[in-house]
Amino acid sequence: MDTALQPGRIEYPERDGKPVGETDFHIAVIFYLRQALALHLRDQPNMYVAANMFLYYEEGNPQAVVCPDVFVVRGVPKRKRRTFKTWEEGAGPCVVIEVTSLSSRIEDLGNKRALYEMLGVREYFLYDPMGEYLRPALRGFRRVGEQFRELKPAANGALRSLELALILRAEGDSLRLIDSVTGEKLPGLDEAVDLARAAQRRAEAEAKRAETEAKRAETEAKRAETEAKRAETEAKRAEDEIKRAEAEAKRADRAERELAKLRAQLQGRGKRP
After folding, report:
1. With contact defined as beta carbons under 8 Å apart, do 168 and 175 qualify?
2. Coil, helix or strand at residue 157
3. Angle value at C-alpha 50, between 45 and 54, nearest 5 degrees
4. Tens-place pLDDT, residues 3-60
5. Cross-strand bridge partners of residue 55
6. pTM, full prediction
7. What b/e sequence results for 197-212 when a residue is b if at least 16 CB atoms lie within 10 Å of its CB, and e otherwise?
8. How many Å apart are CA 68 and CA 87, to the nearest integer?
9. What percent of the chain is modeled with pLDDT above 90?
10. SS (H, E, C) 37-105
11. pLDDT of residue 269
12. Terminal-residue alpha carbon distance, the chain
């Protein structure tokens, strides 16, 4: 057997050596999709997201390769890969997104579409950020049986991904992903960092406010304690005054009785013959 055909001896390159040329528009969309999907699916251990990675789909044939702009695979662990081989993973992409252009239109709408259909991809989306040829700029296909059927967009041009539970919507030269449950836009990495920093600033402000409130409460407690001690002292003083007044009253009463007794005695002596 020719060693070049032995699977263990076959090399599956990580790149084809050709220069990669993309506009800022295309790179921005690809980066956003990769980051936003990774963040969105971070708590799902068996949902893998990749971008611009060689995907080999036929064991023993390194020519059977495609490089999707962004793809998602269900049922495989999250880990870093150099390439993706379907026979080793036991799965292929469930969703593919191509950020297309005039120069890649034939490949994206022709060969790649047919290939993804053959590989069992459930949903295939194309986005033309510069509006060079796609009308509308966002198109999508969903697998029905063994073939793709084009999705009908909403009035605003948005498309729904059942596989990802997301809505894809073109906004200017950007493609945004929207949570179909909450209606919130998925942030990219930069936006997530900004949101995290804003949340941290809010938390720090709340912590500072809570600390101020705690100090104020502590001051109020000390003031209340001082007032309570003063009230206790005043109450004790008043109690002492009452006791002293009661003692004085008792002494005055006793003196009055003694005086009355003395008067009676004097009166008795005056009546004697």
Report:
1. yes
2. coil
3. 130
4. 344 545 799 998 876 655 578 999 999 999 999 999 999 999 999 999 999 999 999 9
5. 66, 84
6. 0.71
7. eeeeeeeeeeeeeeee
8. 17
9. 56
10. HHHHCCCCCCEEEEECCCEECCCCCCCCEECCCEEEEECCCCCCCCCEEHHHHCCCEEEEEEECCHHHH
11. 73
12. 166
Q: Which of 132-141, 153-162, 227-236 has the weakest average pLDDT? A: 227-236
Grouping H, G, I as helix, E, B as strand and the rest as coil, residue 227 is helix
CB 33 within 8 A of CB 70: yes
| 74: Cβ contacts below 8 Å, ≥ 6 apart | 46, 47, 91, 94, 163
- Tokens 């003395």 locate to 262
Tokens of 151: 């999705």
pLDDT per residue as tens digits for the range 245-272: 888 888 888 888 887 887 887 777 766 6
Strand-pair partners of 167: 160, 178
Q: Which of 32, 17, 4 minimizes the C-alpha distance to 168?
A: 32
The token pair at 180 is 């179909």
